[in-house]
Design the sequence.
């Protein structure tokens, strides 16, 4: 009888904590860029399941419509629009639509990225280099610069950049992309102290090889995956949902004492600068 009572006393607070954690983003508004598939969609799902109103976007309307329908079917509050983060007018339109339809913004998840070239780093053309840096780094910064003043108006919130294991361990054939992802780790550390005074936390997640269409060149190549699996503790490709849940954690009160950090979610690949 005593053991049963003790178990109840221990289990009740834990159950209550889980419930609070799941609803900890209720009333929050989250913009997630490039969020109609892969890690971006998984992040939107995880944030939405914790109560946030998510604003999804991508360059194609068909992708937006499909993602909105999926999230609505899961009882997630969602708004969607097209957005090419490389265009100033698109970034501003995404923000304005969020303000008009949701009343404000509390969270920004910067997920948009491109990689138009696979090959030796010194074979990267200037145009390819400019495109990678423009979307993966410059647009991430400018989107943050556009949104943060409105997060500050709500009393604070979170910014999360989606980097990559390549930030720490550059991948052969993905040199410029790897450099751009290292820059996001630096951007996270540089912004965190500046925005802390406004109660805006800035963190980063660095996924390993995740099963998305974006990374299919890697996980569909047996030779590449055999090499990676030798480095992995968990001998499999990751799933987008496993990254989405980490993003949602970073945006929640459970991570209220974290800023300027990068969480690597790599299946155990050793990666440090």
Sequence:
């Amino acid at each position: 009888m005593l053991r049963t009572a003790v178990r109840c006393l221990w289990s009740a607070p834990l159950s209550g904590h889980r419930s609070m954690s799941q609803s900890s983003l209720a009333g929050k508004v989250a913009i997630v860029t490039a969020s109609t598939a892969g890690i971006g969609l998984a992040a939107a799902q995880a944030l939405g399941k914790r109560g946030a109103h998510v604003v999804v976007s991508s360059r194609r309307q068909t992708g937006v419509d499909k993602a909105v329908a999926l999230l609505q079917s899961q009882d997630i509050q969602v708004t969607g629009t097209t957005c090419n983060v490389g265009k100033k007018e698109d970034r501003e339109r995404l923000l304005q639509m969020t303000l008009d339809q949701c009343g404000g913004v509390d969270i920004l998840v910067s997920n948009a990225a491109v990689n138009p070239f696979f090959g030796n780093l010194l074979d990267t053309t200037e145009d390819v280099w400019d495109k990678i840096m423009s979307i993966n780094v410059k647009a991430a910064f400018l989107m943050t610069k556009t949104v943060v003043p409105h997060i500050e108006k709500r009393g604070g919130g979170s910014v999360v950049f989606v980097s990559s294991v390549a930030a720490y361990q550059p991948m052969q054939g993905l040199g410029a992309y790897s450099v751009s992802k290292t820059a996001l780790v630096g951007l996270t550390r540089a912004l965190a102290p500046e925005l802390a005074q406004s109660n805006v936390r800035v963190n980063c997640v660095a996924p390993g090889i995740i099963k998305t269409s974006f990374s299919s060149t890697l996980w569909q190549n047996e030779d590449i995956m055999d090499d990676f699996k030798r480095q992995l503790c968990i001998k499999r490709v990751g799933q987008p949902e496993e990254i989405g849940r980490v993003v949602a954690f970073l945006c929640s009160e459970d991570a209220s004492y974290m800023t300027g950090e990068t969480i690597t979610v790599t299946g155990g690949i050793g990666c440090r600068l």
